[in-house]
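Incident review: delayed structure delivery

Summary: a single-chain prediction request sat in the queue longer than the usual turnaround. Root cause was a stuck worker, restarted by the on-call engineer. No data loss occurred. The affected request and its eventual output are reproduced below so the record is complete for anyone auditing the incident later.

Affected input:
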Amino acid sequence: MLMPEQFTYREMAKYARSTVRDCMKMGRNSDGHFESVWILFNETEPSCETFSRMVEQECWRVGAHTIVESFTSERSKLSRSLTPDESLSEINPISTGLASIVDATMFIGGHDNPSWASGVADKVKLGAPTRTKVNSLIDERKVKWLYFGWPLPGAAKAYHVGLQKFRRIFFNSIRASFSKKTLRLVKYYKQALHGKKEVRVTAEDGTDLVFEISGRPILMDDGILSKEDIETGATGLNIPSGEAFVAPLETTANGKLKLDESFIEPFGKVRGLTAHFQEGKIVDFKAVSGGEAFRKFLDSNTGDKDRIAELGIGCNAGAEYTGGSIIIDEKIYGTIHIAVGNNEGIFKGTNKASSHLDLVKDMRRGNLYADGELIMRNGIPTNNNTT
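Output delivered after worker restart:
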């Protein structure tokens, strides 16, 4: 019997196989050699480890070479606490070395404590050059990458959502990632933005943000790396999937974005955030509460950390609000997200930063325009055939 709040062993085996063979297209690289993959998973949830080992086994079946690491948020924090500043400031040769040779990376599970960096913000900033270098290597080499989310008990606790509900939302959104409805919505918004110059976001709360997307590719996160994706360097996937997205021209965003609630990983929750953009950059912000988390995030990162990087439109009808798990929240049907930070690589943007922060906005009382044409009204596509 199918239980919405859990994956059966058979389901895990099915998704492990499809992840490796269909989604990531693992096998041989362009030189004819079997590909190598770097798998990193969170070990705090046994089912996450089980699934990760299934993924590794499927990689073996197609001939891929694997290196597997486990992690926890506690160890991530401890490593920063114990490591001397001089060492953290150096480019990590292990991380950059792996990014220089692997054909694919898979990150399974996410952090079990989304606020793990609390108390070590200065240490996190010291590692920004390594994060930037790894990102650049992955982008330059067109390394295939996957972030496969998983419902971790620690994360559910941090987001103040019951574990059973958290699991139900997660697994339903994974199931919906490959539904016909999700694909129809993704294709609709890709077409609605194609060839357009100006995008405007408005809402009853006072949000009014305008930016340009001229010449930028409209991309689909449909859970599959197509041959075209790989050839053009659009080599990244999220599962759960389900969004259309584009990198705005980085100096064109002007106006105001207001958000009800945002989880600023790895520092905490912000409520009532208002961000003012001028020539693409956040020049001022205020919050009803938790503003210090946003400030710590900005202070802990480098480069174009506060410049517009992405417009994404959520298309996954199985996704529901979790209170902070961005891989779910950004996919919710009826939302958009505006990101700031890095947008090289898959996005085809020009921002270089050590971070990429997605800020999700509920559009049930908002509108989205492309060159003056209303394409979303109150979170719903204006073309009724998509639903």
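Verification: The mean pLDDT is 94.
Action items: add queue-age alerting; document worker restart procedure.
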